[in-house]
Amino acid sequence: MTAPDAQPKPDDQWSTVMSGDSKYITAATFNFEQNGFGDPALRRRAYRLLKSLDLHLLFRQEMNGAADGEQQIRYEAEEALGMRSWLGERSCTAVMADTKVFAPRGQWPSPWTGFKLPPTAVTFQLRDAGPQSTPVIAVAGHAVYNSPLLREIETEMLTGFNDKWVTLPDGVSRKHAVMIGGFDGNSYPHNLVAGDPALPKLTDIKDGPHRAHRSRPGSDGVRVVHQGPHETLDTARIVDVGRHLALTRGQQAAVGPTMLAYDTHGPDSRVDWLCSSQQLLPVWEHVEVIDAQAVSDHNIVVGRMRRDHLADLLCDLKITAA
């Protein structure tokens, strides 16, 4: 990995998301605000934007209403995107996948009853890698917005998905899984790189409650902006892929703001992260932030993996420790 103070040459082979290229597997995380506020036209606009990205794996936050009634909104999304969905408890989060690419092997329960917004976690195997390959646990998470302390506990609970053994389809063999996740951390990256939005000063957050929500007292008692969840993920070797590519390939677009400036929240910030187990880092080729301000208060983080490289890695991987 390039040292943090080095200046890698920008990787210019990707000026925008490459659509329709079967050599790549595309994943994205998207907090679609309040799932469109019950507005079918707004949902359709969001679906069109997501569909244009040719996704194979989608992590969603704020799936409001998806389980109501006959789950019409859930199935509407599946039909619009051509993907199967798995809803977490209370429709707070969801994972969607192209099952022609990923074979579903099971859904995990929420690991803790204290989650304000429970995560969704689904085990898959890449079909190209076969039934004896290392499984992938896909996790959609949404940290609580108004409690830094609870966010840290929630994130600690999520790291357990990077330490799971999974029984393979033969019913006998077991393998240590890897993890890919999409998270709204409601907090800030802990170690900024070139291209990252600057951390806000607390005085930049004009709304008093939000100032409290986005900060914690430091060791000297002075409040500092909250960066704990991102650091916890990194320590657990669940790596921010955008940050990794910004450091190693000069892809500064990978760490663009995912939430733009608001009077309450303060300046532009990067609170949404696409992450993976560090063992998967060699297969990631590109991450960028897609403007979704026409439909949501969050942008979309999109990443691409080399499909053949991922298949080879999942066939060969032997994990002794996460």
The helix content is: 10-25%
Oligomeric state: single chain
**SSE arrangement, N to C:** EHEHEEEEEHEEEHEEHEHEEEH
Number of helices: 7
State the separation between the terminal residues, measured CA to CA: 18 Å
Strand adjacency order, main sheet: 3-4-2-1-16-15
Question: What would the average pLDDT be, to the nearest integer?
Answer: 92
**Integer-rounded radius of gyration:** 19 Å
CATH class: Alpha Beta
What are the segments in which pLDDT stays under 50 over at least 5 consecutive residues?
1-21
**CATH architecture heading:** 4-Layer Sandwich
Instruction: Write down the domain tally.
Output: 1
Largest sheet: 6 strands, mixed
- Class based on secondary structure composition and strand pairing: alpha+beta
Net shape: globular
Organism: Streptomyces celluloflavus
Protein name: Endonuclease/exonuclease/phosphatase
InterPro entries: Endo/exonu/phosph_ase_sf
